[in-house]
Design a protein that fits this description.
The complex is a heterodimer of chains A (about 550) and B (about 450). Chain A contains 19 helices and 26 strands. Chain A is α/β, with parallel strands linked by helices. Chain A has one domain. In chain A, a hairpin with a 2-residue loop joins β23 (about 485-490) and β24 (about 490). Chain B has 18 helices and 20 strands. The radius of gyration of chain B is 23 Å and the shape is globular. Classes of the chains: A alpha/beta (about 550), B alpha/beta (about 450). At the A-B interface, α1, α2, β7, β8 and α4 of A face α3, α4, β8, α5 and α13 of B.
């Protein structure tokens, strides 16, 4: 552990503590922020610089089975973007799906110190943890996909809601996950079992379970909130990418009945128009609903032009893109619980739909009234790489730049949005600090992250204050992780092992006796080999549930 | 049998890519051997029975017994001094060991390659070309009503594939097991797997690609000339019937083996059956899966992919990973005479590589890690005998369908693990090369 450090003369942006650009000292000891230090403590002069908490990515795809399939499938994604080893770092490859080491280093070089993988099938939890162990510097966690879990849906069919809640807790504990994820709830059965069809109506009955997607969503909202998990259910709605899907999105939010719910990559769910035809923008309607309903948080899933890799637990959605592009395609079914689809993709300015998706994302950012409940994301690498975050920040902070970019894209799409209707808003540095750090940390229930108050993790990013915000956010001058100076003068100076963040909600152990017979019949691995052992945790932190915090 | 008996439930057999994790092992701790392996197949029983504690020196240098420390030093010196060192094998060890092997390749700017390059490497190349619709084996068990094996003989190579995962097993939507399924076998001759098949297609040797392409044409509704029978050995009527069954099944599976990947056409063959599978998804749900051989060859693919971006045949000579099968794959680096030192882990290339490659292997300093003496350890400059994964060590392996499974140790071995030896070599090479001083994290 390095010696105590005082950062002086920098402008501090710490919205969680009401600090908006004031010049303040920051004191760091033993990996945490402290109130004060002895006068002789080592100093770091941040004159002319902007200080923020380390960035927190609430929704990305960086580790686990489908990410690795996407890596393996795309040598062309790596060969033009190599990452040589240095005196302190391992080599790797980049592109839209970087190798594990490169992923950790690149997040750190953007000033991000925490990232959450948003969709891991429980059977892939071990794999994800192994990759995380090779993902340096950043803290990380993952959400397990539970919305198409056959055992859980059978419990709902039988209206056994208490056992359902206990089983959700068991699954999260057994896999060392951080949160529960729903992806296209109810859609796996028609996809796998009924000739690649899908569920398109949130109120359509799924005959295998005699329940509807709405009932699945509602059950998770209640179970996860009752369990007091730090992050609410994280949902990828039905009908991703389809014209007219905004109704499903609104109905999904209504299904939360006022309780906490996080809407993933909501841009992909904000489309008007008719199914099968070009989308229209429903960004304003979605933004209004979120503005008026404080139980909802969301991340945007902004589309950025250029190369992307679509990888999603929503296999039918990936298949639609496969048919459009004709590109190579991966589908991977995971027994009893999940599946995924992968397609290389490219967003192009001149294409109406792509420009529309880009514009809707910007509408959502610019029309949202509460920055605490909208998080910056590209659904990396679905809407574009996390490496494009600095450019996205510039689009939000720099009106003139945004206008230039709007003029470059498909104008028919722009005319169908409100982007040119006096949307003059420019995000402030304080608001950027909220949508990239303070907000996601709060939505995740990470009380020691996203702020710089006493007791917070000393995950700190220090930027040169530059006029060009893309340049500024591309390359922080200093990044501290757990109080260690990882990036010094824009370069990685030391390696560091970040933590795994996970939750371990208590559950009634009797539930295992109910799950086991199902396993014995329908899984292909033994129940006794399913739960992930502590040897996969390495450096980790068990984040307490809300109930555990009060007691 | 002694009195000191231990029972291990849910143990895993790592003999083949099925990685069955329902072993019930009876271990005689005094004799240090497994006396009974309930649920194991004939291959698995032999695997467990034959892995006792051998009476070999832990390490040798130049054929003479040496301390592990001296052998590690010698190995590190060889690797650090080499200009074109290669690392090969890895498919019969844990992911924890594999991760250290890649780190060593990164440090010494060498090549790293696995047995994938001589088995399903072509399937990996095809995967990069066309992708793959695939599934875990439990989906096959629960849903598949049409199963096709092509160029493989699981009855002999993966004996429990039929009973545990695919053909006779009963699942959620296949409550009657075999009765709910149509099973097809495609091969050049009637193998011991043929009796399980409802339909057997005898393809002319070397004509797998043509057969797959003909099926693709029929799936897409094209007309085919009956002369296709002269090309492939299968009549047009049989092909049309097969395509009809494929399009009308509820959940189809195509398993393919080395009869497809290592015969004329190679990655074109794998690509053709993967493309056929993709095409069939226009009509119904269809998946494919290479039937992998070694217990953790799938883990090796995964570890290399997450650490480097590429599944096998990786070279670090420029300080970053590059992928080029045919250039950086081991048979090629040896046969061309490029490699000037080799680290071979859990594999025996000296017994099964082409003659030119073996000759070169005999001419360069070789470091070998294996659980027993082999042709490769016999010709090695430095040889380590190591503990057997899944019997004497815990750790992680990936089943052929990418499902990771944790191993359970049955009894202690006096021999060090692959992971321990590779960690020691890595540490020493790091000091000698001065390369990335990345802290050595204990992997397990």
């Amino acid at each position: 552990m390095s010696s105590p450090l005082r950062i002086i003369n920098g402008r501090v942006f710490d919205p969680a503590n009401g600090v908006d650009g004031e010049v303040r000292d920051l004191c760091i000891r033993d990996g945490r922020i402290v109130d004060q230090l002895p006068a002789q403590a080592r100093q770091l002069d941040a004159h002319g610089m902007v200080i923020m908490p380390g960035g927190v990515d609430i929704h990305c795809h960086i580790a686990g089975p489908k990410v690795n399939l996407a890596r393996k499938m795309q040598p062309e994604d790596h060969r033009h973007d190599v990452v040589p080893s240095t005196a302190v770092t391992r080599s790797g490859t980049g592109g839209t799906v970087p190798s594990t080491f490169a992923t950790g280093y690149r997040y750190a070089t953007l000033g991000y110190t925490t990232a959450m993988d948003a969709a891991v099938p429980p059977l892939g939890a071990r794999h994800t943890l192994e990759e995380f162990h090779d993902t340096p510097i950043i803290d990380k966690g993952f959400y397990i996909v539970l919305g198409n879990n056959i055992f859980l849906n059978q419990l709902l069919k039988e209206k056994r809601h208490e056992e359902f809640r206990e089983a959700v807790a068991w699954w999260i504990s057994a896999t060392k996950a951080y949160a529960a994820k729903l992806v296209n709830p109810g859609g796996d059965e028609p996809w796998k079992g009924r000739r690649n069809s899908n569920v398109s109506d949130i109120d359509a009955n799924i005959p295998e379970f005699d329940i509807t997607p709405r009932q699945i969503i509602n059950a998770f909202v209640h179970a996860v909130n009752d369990l007091g998990l730090p992050h609410p259910p994280h949902i990828h709605c039905n009908n991703l990418g389809h014209s007219g899907n905004f109704r499903t999105t609104i109905e999904t939010m209504k299904a939360a009945e006022g309780r906490r719910l996080h809407m993933a990559h909501i841009q992909f769910h904000s489309y008007g128009g008719e199914l099968g035809k070009n989308p229209k923008s429903k960004g304003p309607e979605i933004a209004r609903y979120i503005n008026e309903n404080e139980n909802i948080t969301c991340d945007v899933g902004q589309v950025m032009f250029g190369k992307a890799t679509v990888m999603t637990g929503d296999a039918p959605a990936a298949y639609v893109l496969r048919k459009i592009t004709g590109n190579k395609w991966v589908n991977s079914d995971v027994e009893c619980e999940s599946g995924c689809g992968i397609v290389p993709f490219s967003y192009q300015e001149h294409i109406y739909t792509h420009a529309m998706q880009w514009a809707i994302g910007l509408e959502l950012f610019l029309l949202s009234k509460d920055p605490w409940r909208i998080v910056l994301s590209t659904d990396h690498p679905n809407g574009g790489s996390f490496m494009s975050y600095p450019r996205l920040i510039k689009l939000l902070m720099d009106r003139e730049f945004r206008k230039q970019e709007i003029a470059r894209v498909n104008q028919k799409a722009i005319r169908n949005t409100v982007l040119l209707d006096d949307l003059e808003r420019e995000y402030t540095l304080n608001e950027i600090a909220i949508i990239t750090r303070a907000g996601p940390a709060r939505a995740l229930g990470l009380v020691n992250k996203g702020h710089l108050g006493s007791g917070a993790d000393a995950d700190i990013t220090i930027y040169d204050e530059l006029e060009d915000k893309e340049e500024m956010f591309s390359s922080p001058r200093y990044v501290l992780k757990d109080g260690e100076l990882i990036i010094d003068d824009h370069e990685i100076r030391q390696d560091h092992e970040g933590r795994l963040l996970h939750v371990a909600p208590a559950y009634d152990e009797d539930i295992e006796q109910q799950i086991k017979p199902f396993f014995d019949k329908y899984y292909s691995i033994e129940f006794g080999n399913y739960a992930v052992g502590d040897e996969y945790l390495h450096r980790h932190q068990t984040v307490p549930t809300l109930g555990e915090r009060q007691s | 049998m002694g009195d000191n008996i231990k029972i291990i439930e849910n143990a895993t057999c790592t003999f083949c890519g099925c990685v069955c994790d329902d072993m019930h092992l009876t271990v005689d701790l005094d004799e240090k051997k497994i006396t009974k392996a309930k649920n194991a197949c004939v291959l698995g029983r032999a695997w467990f029975a034959q892995h006792g504690i051998p009476d070999y020196p832990q390490a040798t240098i130049g054929g003479k017994e040496a301390s592990v420390e001296d052998a590690v030093e010698e190995a590190a010196q060889i690797l650090a001094e080499a200009k074109f060192p290669i690392i090969y094998g890895l498919s019969d060890t844990t992911c924890e060991a594999q991760r250290h092997a890649v780190a060593i390749a990164d440090l010494i700017h060498g090549c790293i390659d696995t047995t994938t390059s001589v088995c399903h490497g072509p399937s990996g190349i095809a995967f990069q070309g066309v992708g793959e619709s695939t599934a875990t084996l439990g989906e096959v068990k629960n849903r598949a009503d049409f199963i096709m094996y092509w160029g493989g003989n699981p009855a002999e190579s993966h004996p429990r594939h039929f009973t545990r995962y695919a053909v006779t097993t009963k699942g959620l939507y296949t409550p009657n097991g075999k009765k709910d399924r149509t099973v097809v076998l495609v091969d050049v001759r009637k193998t011991p797997s043929a009796p399980v098949a409802d339909i057997f297609l005898s393809v002319k040797p070397g004509r797998d690609f043509e057969l797959a392409w003909a099926l693709r044409a029929l799936v897409k509704g094209r007309k085919l000339d009956p002369s296709i029978e002269q090309v492939t050995g299968v009549s047009l009527a049989t092909l049309e019937d097969l395509v009809d069954r494929m399009k009308n099944c509820r959940y189809g599976v195509l398993f393919f083996g080395m009869g497809l990947t290592m015969t004329r056409g190679r990655h074109f063959n794998s690509g053709a059956v993967l493309a056929l599978t993709t095409d069939l998804n226009e009509f119904t749900h269809f998946v494919a899966k290479p039937v992998r051989g070694h217990g953790n060859v799938t883990g090796a693919d995964n570890v290399l992919s997450w650490q480097t971006g590429y599944p096998f045949g990786v070279n670090f000579s420029r300080g970053f990973p590059r992928f080029n099968p045919g250039e950086f794959t081991t048979v090629d680096t040896l046969a061309r005479g490029d490699a000037d030192a080799a680290l071979i882990i859990a594999s025996d290339p000296a017994s099964n590589f082409p003659r030119k490659a073996i000759e070169h292997l005999g001419a360069i300093p070789v470091i070998a890690l294996d659980t027993k003496q082999t042709q490769t350890t016999n010709l090695a400059r430095v040889a380590f005998i190591t503990a057997t994964y899944g019997i004497n060590t815990a750790g992680t392996v990936y089943r052929m369908d990418d499902v990771p499974i944790t191993l359970r140790k049955a009894f202690d071995s006096p021999y060090p693990t692959d992971e321990e030896i590779l960690t020691a070599i890595r540490r020493r090479v790091q000091a000698l090369c001065g390369g990335p001083a990345v802290p050595l994290r204990k992997v397990s």
